[in-house]
Design goal:
Blueprint: H1 3-17, H2 26-39, H3 45-54, H4 58-68, H5 80-96, E1 102-107, H6 114-125, E2 134-141, H7 144-152, E3 154-156, H8 157-160, H9 166-172, E4 173-176, E5 179-182, H10 184-187, E6 190-194, E7 207-211, H11 221-234, E8 235-242, E9 256-258, E10 265-268
Parallel strand pairs: 1-2, 1-7, 2-6, 7-8
Antiparallel strand pairs: 3-5, 4-5, 8-10, 9-10
Helix pairs in contact: 1-4, 2-4
Length: 278
């Protein structure tokens, strides 16, 4: 790929999704965009880029952007955030939301759905403790393709073996040929929506819990600051934000502060109460 065409792809993807493609990641462009180019009848990525430069094509531009964004996910990834959600955060929210009897959770950049489905299984497994409660799980991603897959709820044997407890596999999945499908009761608990984290999230409503894990690592400092500010804007004053274990708000936000409950867990700086650590 020519340097000019690389610059075009890099700048376009950064503007569209916030993803920073550094020079050492040129292989990523070549590996992920070669199939896209071929599917549209181009012999090379350069041909595809040059065609985009001659005649802008919104559908192809979206496809290129989605292809370059990473969609790695697995059930109950890293375990600790989900244990905290189940054993400490939900019980706290049940006490504090007793009047409204409603809890809202946002899974940002949800990929193929393992994270929101993990949360949905936890909620369902709590049974009568949440009887009469409304627990909304909104799951968003920039990619329409992975959202479609997430909504289908169909996972390979390899995928269900990565972090999913056997008891949950037996209780919440049905074998479908060589695959496993999430039962309808769990699929109905998750509201999948297309959403770009660079856009204002006000239309999504306010949330008690936000999972935005292993996303900020792909952004530059300016974009990280912008995204965290947007999340703070829709996070309840006593709400909790989960980031990836390698991510931090340090130097990026004065409104989101770590709590002692676990690594990658944050609350509003002035929050009078939250999970363990207060």
């Amino acid at each position: 790929m020519t340097s000019g065409n690389y610059d075009y792809i890099r700048d376009m993807v950064k503007e569209r999704s916030g993803l920073v493609v550094t020079p050492d990641k040129t292989y990523l462009i070549e590996t992920r965009l070669a199939p896209v180019a071929r599917s549209h009848g181009f012999e090379t990525i350069d041909e595809m880029v040059e065609d985009l430069l001659r005649q802008p094509n919104e559908a192809l531009t979206v496809e290129v952007t989605e292809a370059l964004n990473t969609h790695e996910s697995l059930f109950f990834r890293d375990h600790a955030p989900f244990d905290l959600f189940e054993k400490k955060l939900l019980p706290e929210l049940i006490k504090r939301r007793d009047t409204k009897r409603r809890i809202r959770v946002w899974c940002a950049a949800c990929s193929s759905g393992q994270e929101p489905y993990s949360l949905a299984m936890i909620v369902d497994n709590m049974g009568q403790k949440l009887g009469g409660w409304s627990v909304d799980i909104v799951a968003t991603d920039i990619s329409h393709a992975v959202l479609k897959r997430a909504q289908d709820g169909l996972f390979s044997q390899f995928e269900v073996q990565r972090g999913l407890p056997v008891q949950y596999l037996v209780k919440y999945f049905t074998q479908d040929g060589e695959y496993w499908r999430v039962n309808q009761t769990i699929r109905d608990r998750v509201d999948f929506r297309p959403f770009n984290l660079l856009n204002p999230p006000r239309t999504l409503g306010t949330f008690d819990v936000v999972f935005c894990r292993n996303v900020l690592i792909y952004f530059d400092i300016e974009t990280k600051t912008r995204v965290l500010s947007s999340i703070r804007g829709v996070l309840a004053d006593d709400g909790v934000l989960f980031l990836g274990s390698a991510e931090s708000t340090m130097g990026l936000s004065k409104e989101l502060w770590p709590v002692e409950a676990g690594r990658g867990v944050y609350k509003h700086t002035q929050s009078p109460s939250s999970i363990a650590g207060d």
